[in-house]
Structure formats: C-alpha cells, structure tokens
Amino acid sequence: MSVRTIFVIGNANLDLVTGCIDEWPEPGTEIFLPQSDFRTGGSAANTALALKRLQHPCGFLSAIGSDPAGQMIAQQFDGPLDSVRALPARTSISVGILHAGAERTFFSTNGHLDHLDLPFFERVTENVDVSTGLALVSGAFTMPALLPDHDALLRSLKGRGAETAIDPGWPGEGWTPEARNQAKEWLQHSDHILLNEKETIGLAAAETLAQALPWFTARLRPATRLIVKRGAEGALCLCDGAVTECGARDLSVFDTVGAGDAFNAGYLHAVAGGASIRSALACGIDVAGRVISEFPRSSSPLAPAA
C-alpha cells in the first residue's frame, strides 16, 4: 500500500523552554536556570517537524509574522509541499517554564495567530491537492479568528476528498458551553479526533474518562476514531463503540512540551501507511517517547520503530 501524504494545517510560533523550578521567585529578583531550548513550537508545527523527521511526505500550511522570529520558523519549512506565508504582524512567542514532575507553565503572546482565519487557510490550501491525503487541523483554540469557521474548513477539506483529523487543544477559557458547542460540531466532520485525557473529559463535561467515552460514542459517526492520549498510561482509541488500548513505556523526562504533537505525528504516519489501530497507537507512543527524551530537541531523522 502506498503511503499517503499528510497535510498539517494550523499554528506555528517560537518556543523558549527553560527550567526547572519548584517555586516562583519573588517579584524583582533573579534566578538562574540550568537548561533552556529555543525552538519552533505550536502544535501544528511540532507535528509537521516530527513527520519530517520520520521522512513522511508532509506539507505544512501555516503562517509566520514579518520579523526575525518568523524567519527562524520559515527556515524549517521549505519543502515542496510546505506553504508558510508571512503576515504583517509580530510572530507569536511562548515561554515554557518547566517544573518538577514534568509539569509546565506557559506564557504566550497571540501575535500573528490572531490573523489566521478561514479566508487565510482557503488561500494557503487552494492549490493543494488533498484528495488522496490526510489533513490534520491542529491548534484551533490558539487561532481565535478561525474558531467561528473551523467547521467550514473541515467540511471543505472533506469535500475535496481528504481524510480529516483534528487536535484543537485546550480552550483558553476552559470548556465553556460555547467551546463545547463549537467542538461538538467539529466531531461530525473529523475522521480522527486527537485529544488528551483532560481534553476528552472536559469536552464531555464528565468527571472521569470512563464517564466521557459513552458521551462520545453517542456522537461519533461510524468509523470515526477518538484517540485519547494518556501520557504515562499510553493511549486508547474509541471506534464504533469498541475501545483499543496501548500502554506506554516507562520514561523519565525533563521536557514533555509537544509530547501530544509528536504522538499525532507517529499515529498519523502509521495510519497513512495502512497500519491497524493498535499499531498506530503504538507508533504514536513510540515517537512521542523518543522525541521528548531529547533536550534540546533534535532535527535528525527519526526512524520509525520496527
């Protein structure tokens, strides 16, 4: 079976990841941290970079700001299928402070991400043949101008023949009724719904994952896959009422930023190659584990697990 191209559509920004600290310093003081990494970030960009490391045919469709930060991002997406356009705005930047126990705190600016709306993505995808590929729309909740029309983008991609996937992330104001209503619409036009455990529980307005899964069962179209990323517990897939689970290996890591995005790359890489659900989950877990074991992150080829 031929390997299908994956198109990743969504957000890119610069990340400064540093740490580790146990307590916030007093205002007006200074502390020195032992490690840092300055790199391209954003959920969509992270997934696209991991796919490139897997040497999977991939196109990244996004934007940057018109500043040196944007130029740093653009240098990593110069492939024949990439289309990253500069907008007249400052590039979004996130500062990630790492804490003990693999927890982290982010300080982010919206910057150019505020300008990513449906007309922009229509322009950036208009000459792209997605008819035999798989299209992931990632980071919706970081792009407020797209939110009202996110469903229209998914419908357009499906209408052009693409198999669709979404990873909207965590809404900035939490799972309000408005955020839940928006996301419920997206479920109807997605073939793969990639959420972490907290997002799954939040969208379903449940208390536990066990309570959340029946909520999704009642709302998913036949053959649609809900993929739940569970960190150290591995991952599971809910499809047609059946649950497939895959455990994770034990890892001791410093920097878990982008773990879910790397999982997305491994999972979709396997799906695009015709793998079974269990094999795709295992590939996602493997790729995520290997990516987050690196600090600073590498750009070298990442051979898929045997």
Structure report:
The chain has 306 residues and is α/β, with parallel strands linked by helices. The protein has a single domain (6-292), classed as Ribokinase (UDP-N-acetylmuramoyl-L-alanine:D-glutamate ligase, 3-Layer(aba) Sandwich). Helices cover 30% and strands 25% of the residues. InterPro entries: Carboh/pur_kinase_PfkB_CS, PfkB_dom, Ribokinase-like.
Q: What layout of secondary structure does this protein have?
A:
Layout: E1 6-10, E2 13-21, E3 35-41, H1 43-53, E4 58-65, H2 68-74, E5 83-87, E6 93-99, E7 104-108, H3 118-125, E8 134-138, H4 150-159, E9 163-167, H5 177-187, E10 192-196, H6 197-203, H7 209-217, E11 225-229, E12 235-239, E13 242-246, H8 259-272, H9 277-292
Parallel strand pairs: 1-4, 1-8, 2-6, 4-5, 8-9, 9-10, 10-11
Antiparallel strand pairs: 2-3, 6-7, 11-12, 12-13
Helix pairs in contact: 1-8, 6-7, 8-9
Instruction: Specify the structural class.
Output: alpha/beta
Helix content: 25-40%
Biggest beta sheet summary: 9 strands, mixed
Please list the strands of the largest sheet in the order they lie side by side: 5-4-1-8-9-10-11-12-13
Helix and strand succession?
EEEHEHEEEHEHEHEHHEEEHH
> How far is the first residue's CA from the last residue's CA?
17 Å
Q: What is the number of helical segments per DSSP (H or I, 4+ residues)?
A: 9
Envelope shape: globular
